[in-house]
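Figure 3 (text version): structure tokens given as input.
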């Protein structure tokens, strides 16, 4: 069976309950409804009963403040939704990486983390937080280059990662974990790992399939 066609039998179940993205979406919708309803009532029902200054402040609230809140809510919802694995996979060149993560036979770090349930949701973003709104300048530079190659249709397949991936992305979760700290080599190499003088992948293997093992996906859309 081709490795890309093998999917995990039981995927880790994401946490239930309210999400930040859902909350921001509700805030945006409520703000829009409140602005529209409020403006209609003020203009056609209460205008003659309101002081001039109150009328102006109410218009300011309905025309600028509440729409501004709605804009922030929708923008926040967009950024939050982009953290989902489905958002990453919507770009077809990412298919091999996402399918490998679901592959129960894969030995990559992404697949092993997924199988263990260590990251129950937003698996891509958990390790690539640099692409987020508060990420590093280096990550923004790399992300812009990746985006530019994609929109100009000038990338070569299988794609090659040309960017930076600091150990801090791994250490953010592992540095204080007992399974990490009790390993003698981790403690001995702590300074080198913290300073990126040695890469985590040197000992723990590739996070994703190697370039030769990934089939081109461009044919899927051309």
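Below: residues designed for each position.
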């Amino acid at each position: 069976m081709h490795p890309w066609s093998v999917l995990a039998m039981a995927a880790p179940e994401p946490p239930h309950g309210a999400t930040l993205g859902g909350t921001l979406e509700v805030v945006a919708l409520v703000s829009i409804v409140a602005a529209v309803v409020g403006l209609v009532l003020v203009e056609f029902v209460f205008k003659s009963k309101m002081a001039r200054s109150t009328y102006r402040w109410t218009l300011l609230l309905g025309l600028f403040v509440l729409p501004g809140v709605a804009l922030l809510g929708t923008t926040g919802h967009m950024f939050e939704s982009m953290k989902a694995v489905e958002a990453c996979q919507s770009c077809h060149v990412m298919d091999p990486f996402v399918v490998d993560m679901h592959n129960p036979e894969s030995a990559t770090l992404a697949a092993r983390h997924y199988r263990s349930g260590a990251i129950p949701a937003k698996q891509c973003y958990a390790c690539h937080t640099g692409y987020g709104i508060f990420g590093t300048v280096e990550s923004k530079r790399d992300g812009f280059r990746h985006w530019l190659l994609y929109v100009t249709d000038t990338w070569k397949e299988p794609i090659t990662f040309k960017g930076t991936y600091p150990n801090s992305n791994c250490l953010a979760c592992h540095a204080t974990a007992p399974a990490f700290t009790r390993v003698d080599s981790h403690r001995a190499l702590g300074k080198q790992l913290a300073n990126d003088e040695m890469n985590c992948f040197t000992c723990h293997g590739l996070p994703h399939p190697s370039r030769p093992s990934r089939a081109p996906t461009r044919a899927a859309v051309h």
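The chain is about 55% helix and 0% strand.
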